[in-house]
Write a structure and sequence with these properties.
Number of helices: 12
Largest sheet: 7 strands, mixed
Distance between the termini: 24 Å
Structural class: alpha/beta
CATH class of one domain: Alpha Beta
Number of strands: 17
Order of helices and strands: EHEHEEHHHHEHEEEEHEEEHHEEEHEEH
Length: 549
């Protein structure tokens, strides 16, 4: 029996897709929201440290499961299949809310220069560095809407480098924990400008949800108190409340159907019972995150697009970015840990831009609480990883260490890419994503610079031993994946226009980190949400004008 035709199908119920589904359904469109995972909760797995989205020793508590392999490069001309809990996979959660269920919930706006990287720094050999086709000013109202509707706590009054904003955050910032207070004094002594990390967390009751209880098991885990704000507990419930949005979980989309005139007509997917389904619609919005969005477009072949939807100029899947993390860890004689979660409270933005000889930089923040197992994997070179000495180190330094790290603004690389593998298929027979390429060498230069600044800060804070952390050249991606369907004005060098509308397919849109031309020196979640509002607003206006029916 054929499924009832709808106005819009949104693929992916994460940071971007959840927002778009809410925007369109509240505008009166009939929407089907397809999610490959299911609803999850803290009660499902509790705080099992070996089964969360960061450690993954025993798997991923919030998905995906082993039905979803990928293929990664394993040497020149060699490939290997990997499962979601294995290295190189580039995993993100697969559930309603996706990464917004398990993320650290840092709520950063990109800076004005982050949208104008090529204009600011010029070209860089080996990189496809480019400006965004939109500015910070264009996106600012949508950042504000995300902060209000989803809920952000913060205060930028002591950060002179922040981008301009029209109104304050809707909730007060979280206070510094013990680490934060130690680091604040040291930062000011060095002439840095510390400020509280903006968080998609309730510092006070907000939106009908509880205030944060400062649980240590936060990043990598769902919230036990419903105080961490993601699309699963904000915009998706609002979409469902309209009566116009239907959420179908455990739905694996295999193809966007594009007709011979170049219009999307619907999507093929497998439902929760592994039955093949075809949902027709007036428009499609893809928001499956940078790896899966690129994979879906590449698997959507048609007469006009024999190499994949929107891939006429071979840009789909290119320029995969994430964040190369750099910084340092300091060991102290005094206790620095006070068991106040989530741990990360303080940041500086002094080194995102204006660093001599470098194209950009990144923020530096103290890290989230390291639960016992995660801390046991962090040992200085030569330190025993078993036996009495290992246990003694654990006892002595678990409460006497501070980590400072930041996301390096990576330089996009054309050959850092997603393809579909010619032989390996998933549980449903769909060709899987194949990841290849590497970071740009300049990312390592920026990483060394940020690591040195972290060392300087930790030394001023009283660390007695400092362990630098510098990224390697391996392919990026992971939870901060971006860039594979970049927006731009020229169809020959981008996949979508500035509104996320795929070039040559007027009723096919992208609304996730795939759109990012560059990925900033911050966690990208709030920018993805803002783009969801940006794309959704454009679709609403075009729909009202009769341009998408």
């Amino acid at each position: 029996m054929a499924l009832k035709h709808v106005n819009a199908v949104v693929v992916g119920a994460g940071a971007g897709g959840g927002v778009v589904a809410k925007e369109l359904s509240e505008a009166g469109l009939a929407v089907v929201l397809l999610e490959r995972g299911d609803w999850v909760s803290f009660e499902t797995h509790g705080h099992d440290e070996l089964l969360n989205q960061r450690t993954t020793v025993l798997g991923n508590s919030c998905g995906p499961d082993d039905h979803h392999p990928r293929v990664v490069a394993n040497g020149p001309g060699q490939w290997k299949s990997v499962l979601p809990h294995e290295g190189g996979y580039g995993n993100n959660a697969a559930c309603v809310g996706s990464g917004t269920v398990t993320y650290g919930a840092m709520a950063w706006r990109f800076l004005e220069k982050d949208f104008r990287m090529r204009s600011t720094y010029g070209t860089l050999a080996g990189s496809t560095l480019e400006d965004w086709p939109i500015s910070y000013a264009d996106l600012e109202p949508y950042y504000e809407k995300a902060e209000v509707e989803i809920g952000v706590a913060g205060d930028m009054s002591t950060n002179p480098f922040s981008a301009p904003r029209r109104r304050p955050y809707p909730m007060p910032a979280f206070p510094y924990n013990r680490e934060g207070r130690i680091l604040e004094t040291a930062a000011k002594h060095l002439g840095f400008h510390p400020f509280p990390i903006p968080m998609l967390r309730n510092s006070v009751p907000y939106g009908g949800r509880n205030a944060c209880v400062h649980n240590r098991y936060c990043v990598g885990f769902p919230c036990p108190n419903n105080a961490k704000n993601g699309t699963q507990n904000t915009v998706i419930p609002r979409a469902l409340a309209t009566g116009l949005c239907e959420l179908r979980t455990r739905s694996i989309v295999s193809e966007i159907v594009v007709d011979d005139q170049g219009s999307a007509r619907g999507v093929r997917y497998f439902d929760a019972d592994d039955r093949a389904q075809y949902q027709t619609c007036d428009l499609v919005v893809v928001a499956g995150a940078a790896i899966e969005t690129a994979r879906l477009l590449l698997n959507s072949k048609s007469k006009l697009f024999p190499t994949g939807a929107g891939n006429r100029f071979d840009w789909v899947g290119r320029n995969l970015q994430g964040h190369a993390y750099a910084g340092a860890r300091g060991l102290f004689d005094e206790e620095t840990y006070d068991d106040v979660g989530p741990g990360a409270t303080i940041a500086i933005s002094d080194f995102n831009h204006g660093n001599a000889g470098l194209h950009g930089g990144g923020a530096l923040c103290n890290e989230f609480t390291r639960p016992p197992y995660a801390f046991s994997t962090q040992r200085p070179p030569g330190e025993p990883r078993w036996g009495k000495a290992h246990k003694d180190f654990q006892r002595k330094y678990f409460k006497r260490s501070v980590s400072l790290h930041g996301p390096v603004q990576e330089m996009p690389v054309f050959d850092a890419r997603i393809q579909v593998d010619p032989t390996v298929r998933d549980h449903w027979g769909i060709p899987v994503a194949r990841l290849s390429g590497s970071r740009h060498p300049h990312d390592i230069e920026i990483g060394r610079f940020l690591s040195a600044k972290a060392e300087q800060w930790l030394k001023a804070a009283g660390a007695v031993r400092i362990l630098p952390s510098i990224p390697g050249m391996g392919l990026s991606g992971g939870q901060h994946q971006a860039g594979t369907c970049r927006m731009g004005d020229d169809p020959k060098t981008s996949v979508t226009n500035k509104h996320g509308q795929v070039h040559d397919i007027p009723n096919l849109f992208v609304a996730d980190g795939s759109l990012h031309v560059t990925n900033g020196g911050f966690n990208p979640a709030l920018t993805i949400m803002a783009l969801g509002y940006w794309v959704g607003d454009h679709i609403k206006r075009r729909w009202k004008a009769g341009k998408l029916t």
